Model the fold of this input.
Amino acid sequence: MAEVYKAKGDYAVALKTYERAQSLDPHNVIAVTGMAEVYKAMGDFVNAESLYFKAREDFPKDAYTLCGLGFLWIKSNREDKWFECNGLFKGALELNP
Done:
């Protein structure tokens, strides 16, 4: 449901829906990365990055998390992180060819 709200641009409701999902299951990688994606769509790169770091720590073998963080750094023009993006994308491909 949160994806539908995000796609419609109703970011506040999407965030609440993801937060509810995470409260029911704190180890839900989809909820954490979903919130990160919403923040990224809102242009709030600081909160998005923080959530991707949390997801990466909790789910180190999740390819979607690695790609999401890499794309966030590219979208936010974090040139200091572009070299690391290569490693993230390579790691994601190794996990999910």
In short: The chain has a mean pLDDT of 94.
